[in-house]
Specification:
The chain is an alpha/beta fold. It folds into three domains: 90 residues, Rossmann fold (3-Layer(aba) Sandwich), CATH 3.40.50.720; 205 residues, Mur-like, catalytic domain (UDP-N-acetylmuramoyl-L-alanine:D-glutamate ligase), CATH 3.40.1190; 134 residues, Protein-Tyrosine Phosphatase, Chain A, CATH 3.90.190. It is globular and about 65 Å long.
Length: 450
């Protein structure tokens, strides 16, 4: 890591803990800053804060006292999940205190270049594919961000011979200043996180931040089939690499005659790709482009695509039981993700869906439900999803308490040849701490059927 002096003897507030806050506080302390940590969780229930206290870092827990902002802080590092309308953040901005996220710190100390991936859907699969391809090509990748380890932890261990492959959310990107990936990828943009951003325009602007600081020496890989994304590409200074599943591109990556081509060179036949789903083809195209830019050979790329079957909780095949195939797509936290999951199957589907109610209806999902023979709902959105199911003409619609009780009910309603799919179309927070917890409970319930 680079031992920078810019934070030496500076007063810095780390707002909100979780993994990124702990990492940021420890790193800033190591760099000689006077760090104060503020977290809403009481100290007695906060082992992370207790650990920082033992390092000699000042810790204030239990609430976010606005008067803290009068203590002369020169910088705030906020947890990405804290929105900008939070009174502490609004107050800091009014006082002219810079606010960043931990990703910016990681960039400032890193000796390794970054490949950054963002978008509404497909980030995790794309990030994982790139990591696997670079690894197969002996390019010494490290994986960071929303997937894997906190970026500033990874950056402290990375050297010039490494490449950090990082998944980036819009929340993280809103808090960057100088962060500049060598290769940036924008997979797609759809309506999401409007409760955090307020407007779609702000959400789009946050995603566009991934290429804000790029120069002519960098690369921007983008979805040429989406007008919103293509417009962002028009304003970047980086070299642009478009990808498309619908059109042949002269200087990009695309699908033609059942094969993937990069700048006119055939990479792999789509029939040799193990990862299911038309939507995953977009993820594959952007990942292959990034791997080629990193110097990975076609044999290594082929080996990964020929064997990689998906990421946990992302259309993950769990098992086959008495002719029924179970898939865990708990990461499908919006309508679009569930639409794409349903499009991956020609077999009859028993769909398990429901979760946090963000105020939207599910009319957009109706056309994708034509292959669904049974709909099983749970959570806050159960009634809304049942309405969509009736609109789609689904004859069997059942409501259960939770994911665990949905699984045996789904099996009871199923026949040989059916797909039983958890693809909730909603966030998990009404019943489960994370989508990972929700997915793990589904997997455990499936294995109990055995």
């Amino acid at each position: 890591m680079k031992y920078i002096n810019r934070y030496l003897h500076k007063k810095i507030l780390v707002l909100g803990l979780a993994k990124s806050g702990v990492s940021a506080a420890s790193l800033l302390h190591k760099l000689g800053a006077f760090v104060t940590v503020n977290d809403k969780k009481p100290l007695s229930e906060n082992p992370e804060a207790q650990g920082l206290l033992e390092q000699g870092i000042k810790v204030i827990c239990g609430d976010h006292p606005i008067e803290l902002l009068d203590e002369g802080f020169e910088l705030i590092v906020k947890n990405p999940g804290i929105p900008y309308y939070n009174p502490m953040i609004k107050g800091a901005i009014e006082k002219g205190i810079p606010v960043i996220t931990e990703v910016e710190l990681a960039y400032q100390i890193s000796e390794a270049p970054f490949i950054g991936i963002t978008g509404t859907n497909g980030k995790t699969t794309t990030t994982t594919l790139i990591y696997e391809m670079l690894n197969a090509g002996y390019k010494n990748p490290l994986i960071a961000g929303n997937i894997g380890t906190v970026a500033s932890d990874v950056a402290q261990k990375a050297g010039e011979h490494n490449t950090i492959v990082i998944e980036l959310s819009s929340f993280q990107l809103m808090g960057i200043d100088a962060f500049k990936p060598k290769v940036a990828i924008l997979t797609n943009i759809y309506d999401a996180h409007l409760d955090y951003h307020g407007t779609k325009e702000e959400y789009i602007n946050a995603k566009a931040m991934i290429t804000k600081n790029q120069t002519e020496d960098d690369y921007f890989i983008y979805n040429a089939d989406q007008e919103i994304v293509a417009r962002i590409a028009e304003s970047t200074r980086a070299k642009t690499i478009p990808f498309s599943t619908a059109q042949v591109l002269n200087d990009g990556i695309y699908v033609k005659d059942g094969a993937v081509f990069f700048n006119g060179e055939q990479i792999i036949h789509t029939s040799d790709i193990a990862l299911p789903g038309e939507h995953n083809l977009e993820n594959i195209l952007s990942a292959v482009a990034a791997a080629k830019l990193a110097g990975v050979n076609n044999d290594a790329i082929f080996r990964v695509l020929n064997t990689f079957k998906g990421v946990k909780h992302r259309l993950q095949f769990v098992c086959e039981l008495n002719g029924r195939k179970f898939y865990n797509d708990s990461k499908a936290t919006n309508i679009l993700a569930t639409t794409k999951a349903l499009a991956a199957f020609k077999e009859p589907v028993i769909l398990l869906a429901g979760g946090l109610d963000r105020g939207n209806e599910f009319d957009e999902l109706v056309p994708s439900l034509k292959n669904v023979k049974v709909l099983i709902t749970f959570g806050q959105t159960a009634e809304k999803l049942e309405r969509a199911g009736r609109m789609a003409g689904i004859k069997t619609i059942l409501r259960v308490d939770n994911v665990e009780s949905a699984v045996p009910q789904a099996y009871k309603q199923s026949e040989q040849g059916d797909v039983i799919l958890l693809s909730p179309a909603c966030a998990s927070w009404d019943q489960y701490k994370t989508f990972e917890v929700r997915g793990d409970i589904f997997i455990e319930a499936v294995h109990k059927l055995k």
